[in-house]
Fold each of these.
Amino acid sequence: MKLIIASNNPGKIEEYRDILEPFGFQVVSQKQEAICLEVEETGTTFEENALLKARAIYENTHCCVISDDSGLEVEALGGEPGLYSARYKGLPTEHERRLAVLEGLKGSDNRKARFVTCICFIDESGQEHLFTGEWNGVIAEKEEGSNGFGYDPIFISEDGNGRTTASLPISFKEKYSHRAKAVEKLMAYLKLLRFTPSHL
């Protein structure tokens, strides 16, 4: 059964392929299906944006689809960058966006933060399923580490032993992150779907 990932990010496609092919899915990217949609993320939550992207692909293909939306929420910044994590303050690079967060926290004792992700899975019949994951932690005083991407060099997770995510092995993030938690819920659903008597 074909499953389209609403992304052209090679790393993300490969990650989903490793997870989902054992369930009998043929995992492909938008590009492989010649889908050139650029969905405007007008939602007010991660869930809404994930749904918008998945629905746009499904309406054009009527195949199974997965999309996700995620970001970093910093308590002292009123939840920013949040939905705008990938384009925070209109800054063009990840490094600049990280510095903007650090600058915004100068003089603040509250450095609590969390990563949030929402995965939307639409099955062949068009039914929509949402799976969310959260990863709590704090913002570091400065950038550290070169593993990962985005805000990883300034995020110290609750299970990171005081080290930023970017200073730990990639395998650590793959096991504990917000996306890992959402994917775990998706996998549990697919296993239930596959092995319950009504689907044998």
Note: The radius of gyration is 18 Å.
Amino acid sequence: MSNYIEYNDKIAFHPGYYIKEIVDESGLTQKDFAKRLDTTPKNLSLLIRGEQSLSIDIAMKLSRMIGTSVNYWLKLQNAYDALTAEFRSEEELLEERKIFENFDYKFFRENYGLPDLPRKMNK
């Protein structure tokens, strides 16, 4: 998994993307950074790769360690979650449109009382 997701013209950055930059700029190994953050190297690695959501606990530890607010980190996670949910929703809508293209409107008109209107599909 990546610590960012590209979809159409948008990119959703996982908080791990920014944490990786901080670790890289600190000159510390991930293991040493994890120790200072009071977490396991595995937990930090999962977070950096975007395979785990940022917890409130880690957000608090990061904020103390580098001088940011807890809210800053939680907003990053929330923005990532919102964008990835939007991406999934758009993908589902595209899949549904593909499915509905195969349905004959006449069947629904005759069996479910839909009005006899021209079929319009937004593409």
Note: The CA atoms of residues 12 and 83 lie 6 Å apart.
Amino acid sequence: MRLVLLGAPGSGKGTQAARLRDHFGVPHISTGELLRAAVRAGTPIGLKAKAVMDAGGLVSDEIVLTILEERLSAGDTGAGYILDGYPRNLSQANALDVLLARLAQPVERAIQLDVDNELLIARLAGRALAEGRADDNPESVRKRLEVYDAQTAPVIDYYRHQQKLTSVDGVGAMEEVFERIVEALGNRFA
């Protein structure tokens, strides 16, 4: 199974990706985690990323794709992978397809976790209180959701056009959402 998991901040991508990893036995790959690990390890690409982040900039798609290529070249991705929250824009989606074609590991499915924005704001406000996360205040969350809606809508259409996209209701208990995703994936990956 080679899966892209899409969803707005707070939609449950990370939680569901971890459950899918355990269920299907394929790696859960988060580009944010990969970047942080490369920075901690002090790899050459990690040092480049750190310099950009320390300067307050966004890490380039080129750096992210280099780190992603290294990860996807590892032996444990032979049976597939779950990409969590990447690609985030159309440029990344195109670049990812080029990389995956070169690695002979094209995306087979894209699952979009669909959650209403007002519910996302409430979820993230709860997370902010529970975890003390300043970036999850309602105004900040609204801005992040506006960016997500503007940049990710074309990615959703990109996978829809390729007939790889399935939208899944992301509202409900974690187990209910997980069951919807597994059902959407069908027996093909069981």
Note: The mean pLDDT is 91.
